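[step 3/7] inverse_fold.run input=structure_tokens len=886
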């Protein structure tokens, strides 16, 4: 028997032993002691200490392995960003690609394997950026923290939890009117300043909750508005074209949201609820880049080469060179701006009910969540820029960040070498949609069967539809303007550069004027229709010194994808084709808490869990990238696969928790996840697919052999095998009578996977940091509160193939945040916050293993041999505001 199969067998046997042990306990124990489960304290949350105590109580009295974050007060979540609050929890790492905590990874599993629910149900969302894939992860930056009451993170599974989280399940809970005081009102206003954008942006939020004197009917409404001028300065490497690129991404983010919650409780036993959540994000953006060609066009000297054969240190003479035909080069650099109009809207309607009878409890929900968004218009403006002598100097890529020391670094519209107009090839729109209709019904029956105290069963059905669309513009007459019309002054960039500052509004206006209509781009069209059914049976048990649950969850999925098929001549069919697939599984789970003493708890859990593949991987589309363009050797066939099986893992953990006082905890947990199957992307070069590239024929370029112009890299989604995540979580926290308090935690995650599963041949799971550390210290006394929080994670792989950004390793990242508030009156509070106080940079390097024959590499040159692929300067954000609570 192989070692992998042996480990799976051992883990499966652990589940069986624990299940049989729970049944034995239920058979032997006749006097079930349910008092402990009823002793959970009710805490009116006020301030940091009360918030941490409420979160501690949630963890202590839960049957499963749960951590929680609780609001400090009405409208005051611990962080101004929900993702940052989650980052304080042991075992959680945060992805901050665009300056905010967008996705979270739990215990070494990718952020794509985290299931996020709002009040127990899904929330539809679409991306706004056309260079990122459509996935299942949830963007936490969309949710205004003011409307959130608490967040629960389930690290162990249980049968009544919706499936989908191998890493874990995050449940975000909004506030409800019957749980709040009558006529509760909250309002806040803040100014948000960015150290890079150097703009002050407004944040407004408000909440009002009312209920009648009988507390049988309540209404709560909340709304928020945030406008942010975000700027990201970086250096990007595109070595397939010989480019080093200082770049500036600018975005006008405008987030609007409202939440309406109604509750009606006609009797003590019957309750109805309606929750309406609307999220709207306008994300118009521009990306301005200066494409430098240190090894092309001019006379240059290569001083050093890395293991992948890439020149890492270049000295440029500032003198024009000659091309392959012996002609003197006429330009040395290119500057361009992408202007994108983008947005996303998500609306969720959820109706829930519960009825408690002496002999049973019924609860359930039914609802719909629908999102539409994406890029409404993409356009590109570019022109040669500068003179050869401007680029004389050195380009050094031997460190973590590319150092550029050249004659000129400040460019504006006057440096362009001619007029410009919108690039017709760039004009397109990419609207996407995401919708889920769902229903769930649960039945709980109290019983007295030895230690078994209740039996729970339920069913859930979700109908999920996703659609991606690309429409290319039909061109009319383009406006030609001077560069001074399209650019105004300069904007800062990385490495000390200043780039021409784009006139976004004029670029979008002229792009629209050049479009006479749109036509469907068939390879960019695809639909997915997923029908997910689940049913479960679970028993809760409790006896002297022991409690928990065990159960089974059955899941079944039918999935289909519509697409336009590709024929052997590179043509797409006129009619849609449909691919179908299905799978089902039974997932056992058990959670046991042993009360060794009044304050000491030993926990054990085991389960089998699944996560469904990303939508972008399931679309059955075939797309030809690099076909008939100007760059030989970049031809790629990208193919999806509707038949991908879900990620599946067998997991277990064992932990000890010591609650040494109401505010104090010391805990240690060992966990293991044996991943059986997961999906990945493989790239195979030099493949014949029956399609010849006419541009290769015209250029006489033959990579696969003499006269062979059918030469492609095939990028395919596959079911990969093997992988294991094993680690330890350590946690300590306490608060003192003098107002000081602290919390600290450390997570070790060894998330290994066969290197052959990835094109970069790095044998670790995506998004997994081996080490994560959180340190929080605070002072809270009378009217003043201050908190300093530091989060650090070690390096981790970001994998976005076959997308533009590719696979690279993010270097260790540490972020220091500060928050303070002062209670001026009983109703008014002054708030001051700083996010990323030390302005930590985001540094990403290419670490793929170099093949023996460099020509066999599957990735672009910048993704090998520790080349500094991407780097972005860190921005600190300062917030100052007032909040009013009545």
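[step 3/7] decode complete -> sequence:
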């Amino acid at each position: 028997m192989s070692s992998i199969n042996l480990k799976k067998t051992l883990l499966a046997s652990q589940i069986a032993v624990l299940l049989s042990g729970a049944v034995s306990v239920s058979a032997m124990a006749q006097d079930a002691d349910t008092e402990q489960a009823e002793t959970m304290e009710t805490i009116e949350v006020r301030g940091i200490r009360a918030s941490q105590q409420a979160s501690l109580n949630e963890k202590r009295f839960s049957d499963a392995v749960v951590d929680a974050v609780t609001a400090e007060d009405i409208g005051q979540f611990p962080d101004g960003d929900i993702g940052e609050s989650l980052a304080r929890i042991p075992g959680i790492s945060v992805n901050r690609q665009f300056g905010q905590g967008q996705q979270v990874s739990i215990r070494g599993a990718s952020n794509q394997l985290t299931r996020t629910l709002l009040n127990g149900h899904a929330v539809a969302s679409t991306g706004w950026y056309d260079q990122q894939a459509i996935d299942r992860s949830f963007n936490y930056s969309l949710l205004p923290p003011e409307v959130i009451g608490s967040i629960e993170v389930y690290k162990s599974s249980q049968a009544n939890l919706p499936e989908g989280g191998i890493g874990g399940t995050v449940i975000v809970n909004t506030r409800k009117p019957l749980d709040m005081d009558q006529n509760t009102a909250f309002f806040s206003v803040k100014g948000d300043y960015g150290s890079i954008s150097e703009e002050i942006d407004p944040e407004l939020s408000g909440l009002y909750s009312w209920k009648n004197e009988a507390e049988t009917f309540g209404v709560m409404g909340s709304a928020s508005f945030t406008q942010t001028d975000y700027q990201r300065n970086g250096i990007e490497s595109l070595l397939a074209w010989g480019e080093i690129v200082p770049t500036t991404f600018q975005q006008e983010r405008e987030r609007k949201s409202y939440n309406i919650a109604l509750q009606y409780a006609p009797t003590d036993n019957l309750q109805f609820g309606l929750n309406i959540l609307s999220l709207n994000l306008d994300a118009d953006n521009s990306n301005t880049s200066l494409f430098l060609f240190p090894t092309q066009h001019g006379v240059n000297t290569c001083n050093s080469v890395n293991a992948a054969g890439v020149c890492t240190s270049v000295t440029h003479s500032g003198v024009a060179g000659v091309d392959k035909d012996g002609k003197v080069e006429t330009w040395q650099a290119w500057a361009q701006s992408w202007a994108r109009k983008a947005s996303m809207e998500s609306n969720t309607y959820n109706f829930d009910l519960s009825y408690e009878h002496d002999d049973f409890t019924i609860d359930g929900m039914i609802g719909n969540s629908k999102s539409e968004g994406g890029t409404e218009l993409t356009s590109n403006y570019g022109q040669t820029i500068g003179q050869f002598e401007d680029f004389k100097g050195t380009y050094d890529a031997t460190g973590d960040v590319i150092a550029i020391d050249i004659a000129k670094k400040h460019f504006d519209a006057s440096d362009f070498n001619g007029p410009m107009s919108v690039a017709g090839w760039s004009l397109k729109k990419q609207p996407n949609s995401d919708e889920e209709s769902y229903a769930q019904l649960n039945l709980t029956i109290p019983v007295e069967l030895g230690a078994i105290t209740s039996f729970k069963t339920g069913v859930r059905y979700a109908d999920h539809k996703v659609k991606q669309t690309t429409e290319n513009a039909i061109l009319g007459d383009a406006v030609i303007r001077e560069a001074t019309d399209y650019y105004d002054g300069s904007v800062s960039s990385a490495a000390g550069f200043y780039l021409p500052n784009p006139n976004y509004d004029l670029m979008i206006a002229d792009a629209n004027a050049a479009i006479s209509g749109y036509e469907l781009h068939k390879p960019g069209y695809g639909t997915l229709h997923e029908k997910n059914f689940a049913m479960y049976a679970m028993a809760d048990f409790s006896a002297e010194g022991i409690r928990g649950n065990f159960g089974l969850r059955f899941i079944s999925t039918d999935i289909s994808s519509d697409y336009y098929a590709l024929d052997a001549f590179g043509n797409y069919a006129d009619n849609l084709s449909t691919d179908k697939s299905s799978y089902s599984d039974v997932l056992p789970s058990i959670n046991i808490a042993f009360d060794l003493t009044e304050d000491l708890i030993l926990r054990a859990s085991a389960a089998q869990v699944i996560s469904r593949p990303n939508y972008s991987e399931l679309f059955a589309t075939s797309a030809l990238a690099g076909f008939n363009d100007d760059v030989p050797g970049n031809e790629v066939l990208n193919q999806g696969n509707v038949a991908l099986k879900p990620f599946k893992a067998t997991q277990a953990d064992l932990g000890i928790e010591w609650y040494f006082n109401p505010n104090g905890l010391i805990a240690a947990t060992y966990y293991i996840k044996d991943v059986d199957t997961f999906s990945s992307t493989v790239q195979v070069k030099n493949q014949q697919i029956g399609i010849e590239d006419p541009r290769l024929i015209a250029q006489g370029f033959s990579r696969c052999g003499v006269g062979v112009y059918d030469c492609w890299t095939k990028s395919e989604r596959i079911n990969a095998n093997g992988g294991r995540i094993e680690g330890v979580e350590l946690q300590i926290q306490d608060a003192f009578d003098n107002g000081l308090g602290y919390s600290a935690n450390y997570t070790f995650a060894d998330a290994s996977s066969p290197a052959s599963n990835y094109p970069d041949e790095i044998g670790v799971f995506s998004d997994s940091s081996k080490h994560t550390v959180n340190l929080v210290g605070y002072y809270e006394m009378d009217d003043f509160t201050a908190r300093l929080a530091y989060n650090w994670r070690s390096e981790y792989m970001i994998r976005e193939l076959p997308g533009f950004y590719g696979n690279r390793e993010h270097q260790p990242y540490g972020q220091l945040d500060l928050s303070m508030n002062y209670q001026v009156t009983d109703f008014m509070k002054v708030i001051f916050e700083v996010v990323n106080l030390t302005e930590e940079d985001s540094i990403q390097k290419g670490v793929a293993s170099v093949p023996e024959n460099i020509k066999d590499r599957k990735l672009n040159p910048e993704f090998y041999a520790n080349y500094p692929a991407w780097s972005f300067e860190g921005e600190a954000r300062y917030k100052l505001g007032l909040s009013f609570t009545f």
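[step 4/7] annotate
The helical segments are 3-28, 47-60, 82-86, 483-486, 504-513, 615-618, 694-699.
The first strand starts at residue 66 and ends at 70.
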